Amino acid sequence: MDSQRIRESISWLKKKVSLIDDDQNLIKFDEPISEDFSAAGFDNEVIEIALKASWWNEMATDIIETPDFAEPDASPEKILSYARDVDKECISKRRLA
Fold this sequence. Notes:
- This protein is mainly alpha-helical and 97 residues long.
- It has one domain (3-94).
- It has helices spanning 3-14, 34-39, 44-51, 56-64, 66-69, 76-94; strands spanning 17-21, 26-29.
- Strands 1-2 form a two-stranded antiparallel ribbon.
- A hairpin with a 4-residue loop joins strand 1 and strand 2 (26-29).
């Protein structure tokens, strides 16, 4: 898979991460299924590589658990930023391809 497709998938996945509770800094990852990838215009190569990756479940868990590892005084916006960067770090390390 080329670098452009990887960047597009990272950008798209970041939009799936949101803050659902500012007071408790709870993160939600609207984890996509294959139909979501297809609807977003990704081809079967991206779908197969992403969803069948051995590290996918670990990445999803890390996104949700981001507040547990953030600095105690981090703002909700900062925690959300950290959570949205988890997919980038995972994918960059493993390169989806």
